[in-house]
Amino acid sequence: MTKKEKALEILKRLSAANPHPKVELDYSTPFELLAATILAAQATDKMVNTLTPALFKKYPTIKAFSEAKSEDVDKMVGKVLFHTNKAKNIVASAKIIMEKHGGQVPKTMEELDALPGVARKTANVVLGSAFGIASGIVIDTHGIRLSNRLGLTTEKDPVKIEEDLMKLIPKDKWIIFGHLLTLHGRHICTARPHTCEGCPLGDLCPEYKNSN
User: Fold this and answer.
1) What is the mean pLDDT of residues 149-164?
2) Is the pTM higher than 0.70?
3) CA distance 204 to 120
4) CA angle (119 as vertex; 114, 124 as ends), nearest 5
5) What domains are there in the chain, each with its CATH number?
6) How many helices (H) and strands (E) does the chain have?
7) CA-to-CA dists, residue 125 to 78, 112, 136, angstroms
8) Which residue among 40, 178, 198, 202 is least crowded, i.e. fewest CB within 10 A of its CB?
9) For residues 39 and 55, is the Cβ–Cβ distance under 8 A?
């Protein structure tokens, strides 16, 4: 089995196990997803989802965020790591979107990547989940760990891992594949000690062979 064949089989099996994967952050607008994804860096989606309802109620629009004091936003998101910088970045991003993008979250990797606190992973999340635009594959800590464990790459840098996976997975599956890797790593193949029993990837994973 070639690496490409293996990647496609992984996609097939994970899709069968989870036919409708999606981001687990709660949001109702592209900017809410952007803000939530910024907050979720080195924090769990579950934690972020406990904070954003009140945050989005107080600041219901991009304009409202752009006019907010970052200290006030900071007080509402204090439970996440690096909350002060994240609050500043959310407010600064809102200001830039209002001033340079007509109050609309931009739909290109380059424009999103230029926003404060936004790197390629965050941009991919927003483009894929808010707009359905496949500019790449979301690579988070789960994606790094699983893509190496499954033998799809030997790279450790997220951007290089993404480049490797984009060569293996058809572009129309980039968005879903990122979701599938994240959800499989978060709920099934966790970084913590776990059983491989019932894993849909089974014989495709060296760790599965070693554990049975």
Assistant:
1) 96
2) yes
3) 28
4) 105
5) 3-21+137-211 (1.10.1670.10), 30-131 (1.10.340.30)
6) 13, 0
7) 23, 11, 9
8) 198
9) no
CA distances from 144 to 48, 56, 73, 80, 185 (A): 22, 31, 31, 22, 10
pLDDT of the residue at 195? 84
Report phi then psi at 10, rounded to 5.
Answer: -60, -45
CB within 8 A of 68, min separation 6: which ones? 59, 91, 94
Tell me: the pLDDT tens digits for 16-34?
Answer: 999 999 999 999 999 999 9
Angstrom distance (rounded) from CA 37 to CA 41 = 7
> Cα angle at 185 between 45 and 200, to 5 degrees?
135
C-alpha 9/C-alpha 1 separation (Å) is 10
Q: pLDDT tens digits, residue range 89-139?
A: 999 999 999 999 999 999 999 999 999 999 999 999 999 999 999 999 999
Q: Which two tokens stand for residue 105?
A: 């979250």
Q: Cα separation of 118 and 191, whole Å?
A: 25
Question: What are the catalytic residues?
Answer: 121, 140
